[in-house]
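Incident log, structure service

09:12 report received: a user says their structure output differs between two submissions of the same chain.
09:20 pulled the input from the user's history:
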Amino acid sequence: MQTITKYIIILVLSFYATNVTAQETKEPLAESKKEEQIVLLKDKIKAHEKDALKTEVEVINDRVIKKEITYEKGEDLKQEAAKKRALNIENRITLFENKLAFYERNNLPTPFDGDGNLKRKEFDLTFKNLNDVSNFTGFTVIDSVKTQVKYDLRTTNELMFAGGYNNAIVDGGSLKSSPYDINESSFMEIGWNWKTRLGESGNSPRIKYGLALQVNRYQLEDNKTFIQNGNTTRLETFSEDLNLAELRLTNIVVPVYFEFGGMHKIEKPSTVRYYNDWKFKFGLGGYAGLRTGTMQKLKYKQEGDRVKEKIKRNYNTNPFIYGIGAYIGVGDYSLYAKYDLSETFKNDALKQNNISLGIRMDFD
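09:34 re-ran on a clean worker, output below:
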């Protein structure tokens, strides 16, 4: 029995001695592998920043070629980018070393396994969000994919609204011969426009084009109404006393204007934009389209009853609309005028061309 016990003790001691020797041999190997992994990781950080710098330089060169910036400005931007990337390398390596030391000092799980290999990808290269260090939870791989930053946007869009006085030039004469009340007749126009800058700078002319809805409203005077008889439309005195006699014409048009005037340049790290806030501007152009609705509205009393009529007929109005327009103003607001070159009615003794004057607002 004593002999058996002696052999067991010898066997246990031999196994323990073998393990100690293996651990002593393995620990230097693991430390060596760990140091090798750290060196490789630092090299990855440097390579990543160099790739990012190369991408930035290509973008700057492209801006110089397009004459968005001068050659001297481009060289200054390259110097700034190089300094930034050099500091990034230094800071990121320091942050990695500090975090690794913190983990080891507090006996927290490190990114290395027992053989000294990296096992946690969040330590791989850099912050998940370089712009928010407070949310730092580790490191992650960021691919250095070359992305072309879109700097200058030549075409923008805007909502347009206009309204004001509306009337007509009759028989090539003046507003005095118009049968409409100049104070009660009005127009409204609403549309969506695209604006394309034709040149490089903010002082370049722009072309504006889009789609708009026009509503021209005429209020008749002297108890007159429009009467349609076949292909003829004429003004006649109504049989009752009118409280209201109104003709409303609705058009869908395509406006095209050339706009002139300076613009503010707003330059950000990734974009360049031009705005005409509080800048003088004026535009010249025209429009063309189709008449989509014609309606006469009458209000009067008959035998003590209030009567309101809405008569939807074409009244022989022209189906095709075209005209010229102009505006002048500051920023979003302009004084606006438009004139129909096409006559309102066709084949009638009453020849008139619509004219409007009001305020225009372009909300870009």
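09:41 both user submissions now match this output. Likely a transient worker issue. Closing.
09:42 reviewer note: The chain has two domains: 2-135, 155-363. Helices lie at 2-65, 71-105.
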